[in-house]
Amino acid sequence: MRTQSKLYFYSAIGAVLLVIIAVLALNTGVYDFKGASPFNILWKYIKGDPDLSLNDKYVIWDVRAARIIMAILIGSMLSVSGTGLQGLFKNPLATGDLIGLTSGATLLAAIAIVLGGHFKEYLPEAVQFSLVGISAFVGSFLSMMLVYRISTSSGKTNVVMMLLTGVAITAIGFSITGFLIYISKDEQLRDLTFWNLGSLAAATWTKNIILAVVLIISYIILLPKGKALNAMMLGEKDAQHLGINVERLKKQIIIIVSLMVGTCVAFSGTIGFVGLIVPYILRLLFKSNYTFILPLSAICGSILLLTADTFSRSIVEPSELPIGILTALMGGPIFIAILIKFKKSL
């Protein structure tokens, strides 16, 4: 009960901080509401005020509010996916972008963007609408399976093999994506640039609904796995003796993480290091207790990405800095710090 109380306490603090940052984000932007507060505009929109201008409605609801919600959802899923992978591989370097999941998702999404027009008409209408998203999930899932097969032997993961496999997948993805950029048309080139740099500028409420559904399904399955991941830290045989179905746990984490990473890449492009930064900071506070780390990473990931996105919109106003650049600048030093800390064990 004491553990649950501490978890609720830290979660409440994180939720309050997230609300404060969301309030600041809603007030950030170059659009002039002609002296009115963005919150007054939002409240008028919710009430259905007929005197509210179309421009004000669009900016406050379809641009700022939709973008804030997307940052919260994607930041949360990227963070939880990194935490789940680190628990599965028992290593702090196991994140979607470092072991090739993001590259695999980006590659198949790029193929769908550039070459999808040649075969899209032969697919069912529902598949046509979500072809990029489905492709991103398939790419993420195949990359995850390849990394797991190559780097794991007799229940143990070779960290060097895991990272090298990720490097190989990233290199292959980069080369093929480069070729697709070379043969793409202007409109396709803009889309590919969006995927490679990462951005939340294309946020819509339809995308947010899809993200929310994926998040709810994934968290129902993944968040209760904290005790199982704690048991996995002892080794797979010990975990089995404690009553953990190890193979089922592996399959669930692989599929759920692939689903989350693939969906995030489909809607926001490549946003790296979120799944590395948040678990690393939480691990400093709570050691490797996944009962705390897993649910708290869901909140802290939202805080990190929403903060980064708010900065990306305000640093070079009226232009926008791609959010993937900011997260890479934050994550690079932490990645080096992890390598230095664990260089002997690695």
TrEMBL record:
Membrane topology classification: Multi-pass membrane protein
Protein family: Belongs to the binding-protein-dependent transport system permease family. FecCD subfamily.
The entry's keywords: Cell membrane, Membrane, Transmembrane, Transmembrane helix, Transport
Protein name: Iron ABC transporter
PANTHER family attached to this UniProt entry: ABC TRANSPORTER PERMEASE PROTEIN MJ0876-RELATED, FERRIC ENTEROBACTIN TRANSPORT SYSTEM PERMEASE PROTEIN
Pfam family, one: FecCD
Gene Ontology BP term (one): siderophore-iron import into cell
Gene Ontology terms for molecular function: transmembrane transporter activity
Organism this protein belongs to: Chryseobacterium kwangjuense
Compartments, record wording: Cell membrane
Annotated GO CC locations: plasma membrane
Record field: transmembrane: 7-26, 65-86, 98-117, 129-148, 160-183, 203-223, 253-278, 290-311, 323-342
